[in-house]
Design brief:
mainly alpha, two-stranded antiparallel sheet, elongated
Amino acid sequence: MARKATINKSEKTYESALKMKKSRDEWKAVIIDPKASAEEKRNAQAKLVATRASSMVRVRRRCLVNGRGRGIYRRFGMCRNVIRKLMMDGMFPGGQKSSW
């Protein structure tokens, strides 16, 4: 189980990224726009750099059950360990135990 502080930090980063997404997209559009002046592009780039911490790239997926940060399956939102445990308990239909 991940520490509560780590889980809270991850949630806070995600909320911040959602809140700043529209602004960041607008600034990126200004930077790409060939009609924008050099001054506008420089200002937009400075604003992007200032809000680097609120980028979606910095958001880390965490398991919904125990907060683990590695081995997360996007489809289920859970880590591989939890999925395996649920399959072994019969709570996760359609899964098979591998053997080779």
